[in-house]
Specification:
The chain is of the alpha/beta class. Helix content is 42%, strand content 17%. A seven-stranded parallel β-sheet has the order 11-12-10-13-14-9-15, with helices on both faces. Strands 16-21-20-17-19-18 form a six-stranded parallel β-sheet, with helices on both faces. α10 crosses α26, α10 crosses α27 and α11 packs antiparallel against α13. The relative contact order is 0.09. The protein binds adenosine-5'-diphosphate and magnesium ion. Adenosine-5'-diphosphate (ADP) binds next to α13. Keywords: ATP-binding, DNA damage, DNA recombination, DNA repair, DNA-binding, Helicase, Hydrolase, Isomerase, Nucleotide-binding. It catalyses: Couples ATP hydrolysis with the unwinding of duplex DNA by translocating in the 3'-5' direction; ATP + H2O = ADP + phosphate + H(+). GO terms for molecular function: 3'-5' DNA helicase activity; ATP binding; ATP hydrolysis activity; DNA binding. InterPro entries: ATP-dep_DNA_helicase_RecG (IPR004609), DEAD/DEAH_box_helicase_dom (IPR011545), Helicase_ATP-bd (IPR014001), Helicase_C-like (IPR001650), NA-bd_OB-fold (IPR012340), P-loop_NTPase (IPR027417), RecG/Mfd (IPR047112), RecG_dom3_C (IPR045562).
Length: 705
């Protein structure tokens, strides 16, 4: 049989499962490139959705260009300049009927390219307009030369822009996708969600939705498609959210099928620790502690997230869980996202547990040489509790009997890191995996928690210890900085302590440290009769600890710091906080920082210094901070203003990168996603698998490889 007939036969039986190499024009080289994008079967191409769209359906006059927008322009080359400032570049000035000039700037170009772009050449170009020093420009626009007086032909449809990889241009990829779409079957064959559920939840045709997003019709508006609210996009977003939900549930089920050591001691250590505390647990702490105790007494691994606003007292709850493990002869690993925070846990745990005869080992990245060898040795031979940073997950760390993993401030770790520590603790002989407790101070809106943490059970410590007074917050322009410094002065003379936080966010640790040093010098000279300390990420752990200790002991009145103090730092006597450039920070970060004060009974204040003029978003954020101390309300607002990637802090790890869904925009779909998900898992497991294979199949195959 000739090869083409073989292909035709395969395609007919199950077009979606057909390898891409069966498509006409897809040879081995192209198939390999597509595989790098995870595109191996025809259905992978159907579900390879555009990232965005380009509007090349009309021309924009150079006079009407606006910075930040993408536009298509037709013009004639007026002048060409080759320069070598820092690196070779080619600047091509074009002009059009509006008599205005636009500069096309290239940093990568070859000789023939620069020779082709001679004055007088007519060009059709498309790119993002930027404001440069001397006017508007486009960097590396796409362009095409127009010969003679050939009129520029504009597109009739919006152009989808797909995620792609090196060596695969948009046109070629779009061409392959078009061939795949020609094989798209009718809904009856395509749909994996049972018809009655589609009807019940108003889900429209999947086939039409796919065709629409790949080939928006002539009447589609860029604006409408960009917001993602078109019914076709919503239909696909629903399915994608459903799939993510199913995959987390499946991951959870896989873990739950494994066995964990039962952590159930006599409760004696617990009694002794509680008796030694200067306070009693709040009702919420008791409840959550009980939920954890019940979970870890089981032989299947606990997967629990404890949410609690800053200062709600999560640490003691974690310590109590650790005691149950220790009583059962198992080790506990506690992992924190920053060294400062890990050190603080170390102090608390040693303070609480050493009197009970429990060994608490320390293992951070900066523990090196002999000390590290010793620590590793202690961990391997069974130190009860091991506290550290990510270093706990590194090669060469092996535990004797890891029964419980506690991850603090989980939003800084991705799902992958979470899993990695779990795997690390898995005992290959016994097949046991540790229980897992995740602590987060970022109150996650319910809808988001349901989706992002569908693999975890959630407990909330929704009550603050008694005697806390809410922090009074005000926003003050940097122009009144001097008044603020005066105010700190007065407070310090009354014996109060203050934090002064410098916030350079996007720059390097070195620049952040410098900014803090400058502020430290400024405050030291303005408040010469007060003692001012400085702490930043570039200091050695010992130095940081010495400064923290001095501040805790009340020897320093003011602590100037970078955002290293953002998470977890606990000095109950500090009652004043100044946050510089507060307009640059997101809500949850502001809330975390503010959470450093208001921990004692003294009334606390927070000053948000800002640099005017304030943009709309910054204004709203500062207003929210003034209005409320409620972490949940702030998180809801944050989700609304910034989107879930930021709220969860996982933008970099990409764990929540969707092709089409957007948790903030599509949160209204989540209740239905849950319902449909539950029915599929219970009654249609095959379909659930099909959805996972469809949306994340390729990625999952890679992850397992
Ligand atoms: P977070 O939840 O932000 O991690 P911590 O565990 O650091 O909070 O607790 C904040 C402070 O409150 C600590 O000083 C801790 O000792 C104290 N604390 C915890 N629980 C209680 C309680 N039930 N009553 C009084 N103080 C408490
Ligand atoms: Mg904490």
């Amino acid at each position: 049989m000739p090869p083409s007939r073989v292909h035709a036969a395969t395609i007919l039986s199950d077009p979606g499962a057909t390898p891409v190499s069966a498509l006409p024009g897809v040879g081995p080289a192209l198939a390999e490139t597509l595989a790098r994008l995870g595109l191996e079967r025809v259905q992978d191409l159907w579900f390879h959705l555009p990232l965005r769209y380009e509007d090349r359906t009309h021309l924009t006059s150079i006079a009407d260009l606006r910075p930040g927008e993408r536009a298509q322009v037709e013009g004639v080359v007026e002048a060409v300049e080759r320069g070598f400032r820092y690196r070779p570049q080619l600047k091509v000035a074009i002009t059009d009927g509006s008599q205005q000039t636009l500069v096309l700037r290239f940093f990568h170009f070859n000789r023939s390219q620069s020779e082709q772009l001679k004055p007088g050449t007519r060009l059709l170009c498309y790119g993002e307009v930027r404001q440069a020093a001397l006017g508007l420009e486009m960097v590396h626009p796409q362009y095409q030369r127009l010969s003679g007086d050939e009129p520029a032909v504009v597109d009739e449809l919006l152009t989808p822009v797909y995620p792609t990889t090196e060596g695969l241009g948009q046109k070629r990829l779009a061409g392959v996708i078009a061939k795949a779409l020609a094989l798209l079957p009718q809904d009856a064959q395509l749909e994996l969600i049972p018809t009655e559920l589609c009807v019940a939840h108003g889900l429209t045709s999947l086939r039409e939705a796919l065709l629409y997003v790949h080939r928006p019709p002539p009447d589609a508006h860029l604006g409408q498609l960009t917001t993602g609210r078109h019914p076709a996009q919503q239909r696909l977003a629903f399915e994608e959210l459903l799939t993510q939900h199913l995959s987390l549930k499946r991951m959870r089920a896989a873990v739950r099928r494994r066995h964990a050591p039962r952590l159930q001691g006599t409760g004696e250590l617990r009694q002794r620790l509680l008796a030694s505390l200067p306070f009693g647990l709040t009702g919420a702490q008791q409840r959550v502690s009980g939920e954890i105790a019940k979970d870890i007494a089981q032989a299947s691994p606990m997967l629990r997230l404890v949410q609690g606003d800053v200062g709600s007292g999560k640490t003691i709850v974690a310590a109590l869980a650790a005691l149950a493990a220790v009583e059962s002869g198992q080790q506990v690993a506690l992992m924190a996202p920053t060294e400062l925070l890990a050190e603080q846990h170390l102090q608390h745990f040693r303070h609480w547990l050493t009197p009970l005869g429990i060994e608490v080992a320390w293992l951070a990245g900066k523990v090196t040489g002999k000390a590290r060898q010793q620590a590793l040795q202690r961990v391997a031979s069974g130190a009860h509790v091991v506290i550290g940073t990510h270093a706990l997950m590194q090669e060469g760390v092996s535990f004797a009997q890891l029964g419980l993993v506690i991850v603090d401030e989980q939003h800084r770790f991705g799902v992958q890191q979470r899993l990695s520590l779990r795997d690390k603790g898995a005992d290959h002989e016994s097949g046991l995996v540790p229980h897992q407790l995740v602590l987060t101070a970022t109150p996650i809106p319910r809808t988001l928690a349901m989706s992002a943490y569908a693999d975890l059970d959630v407990s909330a410590i929704d009550e603050l210890p008694p005697g806390r007074t809410p922090v009074q917050t005000i926003a003050i322009s940097n122009a009144r900085r001097f008044d603020v410094i005066e105010r700190i002065h007065a407070a310090c003379l009354e014996g109060r302590q203050a934090y002064w936080v410098c916030t350079l966010i996007e720059e390097s640790e070195q620049l952040r440290a410098q900014a803090a040093e400058v502020a430290h010098a400024e405050l030291s000279s303005a408040l010469s009769d007060c003692r001012i300390g400085l702490i930043h990420g570039r200091m050695k752990p010992k130095e940081k600890q010495a400064v923290m200790d001095a501040f805790k002991a009340g020897e320093l009145s003011v602590l100037v710091s970078t955002t290293v103090i953002e998470v977890g730092v606990d000095v109950p006597n500090a009652s004043l906080m100044v946050i510089e450039n507060s307009e640059r920070l997101g809500l949850s970060q502001l809330h975390q920082l503010r959470g450093r004060v208001g921990r004692g009974a003294i009334a606390s204040n927070c000053v948000l210094l800002y640099q005017p003029p304030l943009g709309q978003l910054a204004r709203e954020r500062l207003q929210v901070m003034r209005d409320t101390n409620d972490g949940f309300r702030i998180a809801e607002k944050d989700l609304e203003l910034r989107g879930p990637g930021e709220v969860l802090g996982t933008r970099q790890t990409g764990q929540l990168s969707f092709r089409i869904a957007d948790l903030a925009r599509d949160a209204h779909l989540l209740p239905a996603v849950q319902e449909v998900g539950a029915v599929l898992l219970a009654h249609h497991p095959q379909q659930a698998e099909g959805l996972i294979a469809r949306w994340i199949g390729a990625a999952a195959r890679y992850a397992h490889a």
